[in-house]
Amino acid sequence: MKESKLIKYQLSIIFLLIIIIPAIGTILGIDFFERKDENRAFKESINFNIKKLDNFPPHFNAYINDNFILRSPMLSVYHRIKFDIFKTSPYPEKAIIGKDGWMFKAGKETDIMSGELNFSTATLDSFTNEWKERKQYYEALEIPVYWMICPIKHRVYTEKLPNHYNISETSRINVLKKHLEKDFPDLIIDPTDLLKSKKKEAKLYFKLDNHWNERAGYYITEQLIEKLRFKFPNKDIPNIPEIKWNINEDFRSGFHHRVMGIDELSEKIETITIPNSLATEAEKYGFKGVDGFAYPWEFENRFIHKTLNDGLRVLFIRDSFGGAIRPFVKEVFQETLMIFDAWQYKINEEVIDTFKPDVVIYIGLETHIESFLKEYN
Q: Name one Pfam family in it (predicted).
């Protein structure tokens, strides 16, 4: 009995179908599977210029890679194998898996912790020169200025890093503080020790993200209140009002959640409500934002306290880590203005001239310290 031709060629037919059907679906724009959020911009179209044909092959390849309809299920399988079987990160160049479900950024953060990005003497001197220039500007206006350096999660939760993780004996935050303390003894606010002392009371960073959370924001605001009360003894700076902490048992988001690509990964987090809030979001001054900034709605946030008449008007020039203190600082200052200038941390003269703050506080992640120097902008 002769073998059926269909059976004889079934493997070849199946193979061709696997290739042809996804290709047809990709060309026609049919979405068989939901695209995974990979925390980056996808290539949504093909750039074709008859005068620059050399650019077409890589553009086309990038487009197919991003829009191939089997990309999502294939990535899911890859993530599962790496995470569930080998217990490693699918993208170790982006994120590493620590102990007890804690995850940490790789890349620059790893280089910081290993000491590879410690500052040279020349760079430290550049910081001195930069802050001399800034202090001269602020002192002419009689505005005190502070620089809060937010430690990366690795520095606060060192015990949760993998055993093999390379950690330098020196901290570049401490080296910078020591270098600047002679000329600027009261400039830097370093909450590292505070956070280490409080981490047994509550979780202070997200397990599935690189940011600190609102618990950290609460403790840091208390530290800030104490410092500013000493600096401004005649100003009315109230305590943070009563807070209600809400529990979300199944929070599924964050940088590491996206990198791992495992949908059911989750953590318990706390969020807040302030039942008797006395702060209201006010109309923005309308400062021009930074061209191309990914989060233009975050460039300017303004809050006014309803009852404070002799409080502080505080300007925060911040990055995303300033978001965790926002719910609290708006409740203790007469007027709070937050400027997120796309990780540039500039003086922002127009903002200063218009707002006329009592005090300016820069708040930025340890990873972005170099951005304060002009040569890095």
A: ALGX
Q: Output helix, strand, coil percentages for the chain, rounded to the nearest 5.
A: 40, 15, 45
Considering the domain architecture, whether residues 194 and 260 belong to the same structural domain is answered as: yes
Q: 243 in helix, strand or coil?
A: coil
Q: Are residues 44 and 121 in the same domain?
A: no
Residues 325, 320: Cα–Cα separation, whole Å: 10
pLDDT tens profile 209-230? 999 999 999 999 999 999 999 9
Instruction: Answer yes or no: do 276 and 167 share one domain.
Output: yes
The pTM assigned to this predicted structure is 0.83
Which DSSP string do the residues of 180-215 spell out, in sequence order?
A: HTTT-TT-EE--HHHHHHHTTTS--B-TTSSSB-HH
**E-strand spans in the chain?**
95-97, 103-105, 145-150, 188-189, 244-251, 267-273, 279-281, 300-305, 313-318, 335-339, 359-365
Integer CA distances (angstroms), 211 to 103, 121, 271, 312, in order:
11, 30, 14, 27
231: containing domain: 97-376
> Which pair of tokens denotes residue 122?
């020349």
